[in-house]
Amino acid sequence: MREVTSTWDILHKYPSDYRVVFVGDAAMSPYEIAVKGGAIEHWNEEPGAVWLKRFVDVYEHLIWLNPTPEQYWQHSQSTQMIQEIIGAERMFPMTLTGIENAMRELAR
């Protein structure tokens, strides 16, 4: 059996003092971030940017670990869009140093 928890439930169940870690390649179609229905696997009623902003508004301690090497981030429009939404200082490379810095950010 597959359990599914809605994003709304997460935002309302876990208080603002929780730490949030997004892990994943931020290089995606900009439509997934900017356009209603932009995801290819299902219809989204709202753009991804709306949901990211909701997380940023609720959780002060939020980071994104990006496995794409940092030198390529500037070549991805969607990576730059995500950095604008969450704050560029909250995105870290998935390296030992990047993870150490990310944990420091979450602990402050």
Describe what this molecule looks like in 3D:
By secondary structure, the protein is an alpha/beta fold. It contains five helices and three strands; from the N terminus they run H-E-H-H-E-H-E-H. It has one domain (7-107). It has helices at 7-13, 30-34, 48-58, 77-86, 96-107, and strands spanning 19-23, 61-66, 91-93. Strand 2 (61-66), helix 4 (77-86) and strand 3 form a beta-alpha-beta unit. The chain is globular. The chain starts with 6 loop residues before the first helix and ends with a helix.
Secondary-structure map:
Layout: H1 7-13, E1 19-23, H2 30-34, H3 48-58, E2 61-66, H4 77-86, E3 91-93, H5 96-107
Parallel strand pairs: 1-2, 2-3
Please supply descriptive tags for the structure shown above:
alpha/beta, about 40% helix, 3 strands, single chain, 3-stranded parallel sheet, globular, about 110 residues
Quick summary of this structure?
By secondary structure, the protein is α/β, with parallel strands linked by helices. It is built from five helices and three strands.
Helices and strands: which structural class?
A: alpha/beta
Query: N-to-C SSE series?
Result: HEHHEHEH
Helix content: 40-55%
Largest sheet: 3 strands, parallel
What low-confidence regions span 5 or more consecutive residues with pLDDT below 50?
Answer: none
The whole-number mean of residue pLDDT values reads 92
State the end-to-end distance: 38 Å
Strand segment tally: 3
Oligomer: single chain
Radius of gyration, in angstroms, nearest whole number: 14 Å
Contiguous helical run count: 5
